[in-house]
């Protein structure tokens, strides 16, 4: 049975929002400690904005989690309930389709007009369980999770023919499809240049032009960016087809935003590394 760590709340019955920093932090700690004490499937969370809680969690992480996920762990096989991002309240299914398992979630924040950071979307990174075990199991199957070199593991995940989905759930309420196009043009354009040099305008244009004006992106919209077999990038918005493009460079560039060297949410990447290393079948 596989045990995964998610430093955030698993879906709970909806409670009225708790106001005030300390109350929220206290309930978060209490929730984690109570669950750990009970020895049950553990519910862990992280309040990124609270330094005390962050330090406490880091302490636990560095002393326990790295080698043995004694808390904040979950068997997906035993509990397929969705995973909630505590900051945005967004829920992610723990399995997409039949076999893509959730490896971690994160938050994309963006600075607007050089002034303030807004939460634009929460994201979840999924990878096909069968592919993970087939491709990564061969190479890393004999090593324990703590022995696996995480950088190699992530590079292999990005480079191999492993089906993956990055799910974006929009939390910002005033997003136009135009701003989606230009945000992709900037971030993906940057990565295309990083991996493929300057001559990739046509590829970028093909990708961004898929986001046609007819698509509306209200809060709650879901954009799925899926790498299918043979590096076909398949995009949907709220389940509707947006387009497919076969390009290793494009797939790599998209994945790099979330799990590359300079990811949007570093903490999410660490969780993904950890969970991936833990779920490779021995
Ligand atoms: C006002 C900010 C607008 C940002 C829109 C982002 C929408 C999706 C873009 C995905 C790629 C990225 O996060 O850069």
Automatic annotation (TrEMBL):
GO CC term, one of those recorded: chloroplast stroma
GO biological process: fatty acid metabolic process
GO molecular function, one term: fatty acid binding
InterPro entries according to UniProt: Chalcone_isomerase, Chalcone_isomerase_3-sand, Chalcone_isomerase_bundle_sf, Chalcone_isomerase_sf, FAP1
Limits of the Chalcone isomerase domain: 101-272
Pfam families linked to this entry: Chalcone_2
Family: Belongs to the chalcone isomerase family.
Identification of the protein by name: Fatty-acid-binding protein
């Amino acid at each position: 049975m596989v045990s995964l760590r998610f430093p955030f709340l698993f879906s709970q019955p909806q409670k009225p929002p708790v106001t005030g920093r300390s109350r929220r932090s206290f309930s978060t700690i209490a929730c984690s400690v109570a669950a750990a004490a009970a020895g049950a499937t553990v519910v862990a969370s992280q309040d990124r904005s609270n330094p005390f809680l962050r330090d406490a969690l880091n302490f636990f992480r560095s002393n326990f989690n790295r080698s043995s996920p004694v808390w904040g762990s979950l068997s997906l096989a035993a509990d397929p309930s969705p995973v909630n991002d505590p900051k945005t309240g967004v829920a992610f299914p723990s399995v997409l389709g039949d076999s893509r398992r959730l490896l971690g979630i994160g938050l994309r924040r963006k600075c607007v007009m050089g002034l303030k950071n807004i939460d634009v979307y929460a994201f979840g990174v999924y990878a096909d369980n069968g592919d993970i075990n087939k491709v990564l199991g061969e190479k890393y199957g004999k090593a324990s999770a703590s022995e696996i070199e995480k950088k190699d593991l992530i590079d292999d995940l990005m480079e191999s023919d492993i089906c993956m989905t990055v799910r974006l759930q929009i939390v910002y309420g005033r997003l136009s499809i135009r701003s989606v196009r230009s945000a992709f043009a900037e971030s993906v354009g940057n990565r295309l240049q990083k991996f493929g040099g300057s001559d990739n305008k046509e590829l970028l244009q093909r990708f961004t032009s898929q986001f046609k004006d007819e698509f509306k992106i209200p809060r709650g919209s879901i954009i799925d960016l899926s790498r299918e077999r043979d590096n076909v990038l398949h995009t949907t918005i709220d389940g509707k087809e947006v387009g497919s493009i076969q390009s290793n460079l494009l797939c790599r560039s998209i994945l790099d935003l979330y799990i590359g060297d300079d990811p949007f949410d570093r903490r999410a990447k660490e969780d993904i590394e950890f969970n991936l290393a833990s779920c490779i079948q021995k």
